[in-house]
Amino acid sequence: MAKQELYEKSPIRAFDEVSNGGLKAGELGLVTAKKGLGKTSVLVQFGMDTLLNGKQLVHVSFDQHSENVISWYDGIFSEIAKKKTISNAQEVKEQILKNRTILNFNQDNFNLEKVVNTLNALKAGGIAVAGVVIDNVDFSKVKESDVQVVAAYAKATKSKVWMSATVTSDKLEDSAPKAILPYFSAVLHLSSKASVTQLSILKMGKNTDLSTNLKLDSKSLLITTK
């Protein structure tokens, strides 16, 4: 019951409300922003949502050590738990984090196709992954065929796959290379305006530039509409 209550309090519910249910199983999503604006926080919130839903998650990082990734999840869980008084929050945390696998790779020698090979190995070992987040992808090192493999994996396993990338533009067409962008069903962008970090939905399915009031809370870094 406590886990369900936390799932209902997840900041992703605010995102779902303005995005017609958010990313669907079997689809790819992308979060972009300038460096340091909160891409990892957003990815971790999507990852935590998968865990609170009682499903298996794989978090792939190309630029952070496992200890840093663990700290992000600890912090995000604590902030979500503050929204609901739960006596056994630590027990719930330990229970859901058993379903999390963290992988660290160097993109110079480990491409997205190899990431998918690792995910398939986990599947063969009995881990039914429902959510994947891949943090800080450098698209200058990505081929269209790499993204095709990820898209095929997501579709075959009905997994939700979120990636993040550092970009300087807030335009949809600049979010990823032209050949790669169509593979993403959702594209979100973080931007700093008047001391507020806004979360824009540049693409969701067939719709573009959805009107939202989503932002990141300045203290908790949780997605919010307040």
List the helices and strands and how they pair.
Elements: H1 2-8, H2 12-18, E1 28-33, H3 39-52, E2 56-61, H4 66-82, H5 89-97, E3 100-104, H6 112-124, E4 129-135, H7 144-157, E5 160-166, E6 186-193, E7 196-204, E8 207-210, E9 215-216, E10 223-224
Parallel strand pairs: 1-5, 1-6, 2-3, 2-4, 4-5
Antiparallel strand pairs: 6-7, 7-8, 7-9, 9-10
Helix pairs in contact: 3-4, 6-7
Description:
The two termini are 27 Å apart. Helix content is 36%, strand content 25%. It contains 7 helices and 10 strands. Helix 3 crosses helix 4 and helix 6 packs parallel to helix 7. The protein has 226 residues and is of the alpha/beta class. The model has no long low-confidence stretch (mean pLDDT 93). Strands 1, 2, 3, 4, 5, 6, 7, 8, 9 and 10 form a 10-stranded mixed β-sheet that branches.
- Kindly state the number of beta strands: 10
Query: What helical percentage do the residues reach?
Result: 25-40%
Spans where pLDDT lies below 50 across 5 or more residues? none
Overall pLDDT:
93
Element order: H for helix, E for strand: HHEHEHHEHEHEEEEEE
Structural category: alpha/beta
Distance between the termini: 27 Å
Tell the overall outline.
globular
From the alpha carbons, calculate the radius of gyration and give it in angstroms: 16 Å
Sketch the major β-sheet.
Answer: 10 strands, mixed
Strand content: 15-25%
Q: Output the number of helix runs.
A: 7
Task: Please give a handful of descriptors for the protein shown.
ten-stranded mixed sheet, 226 residues, alpha/beta
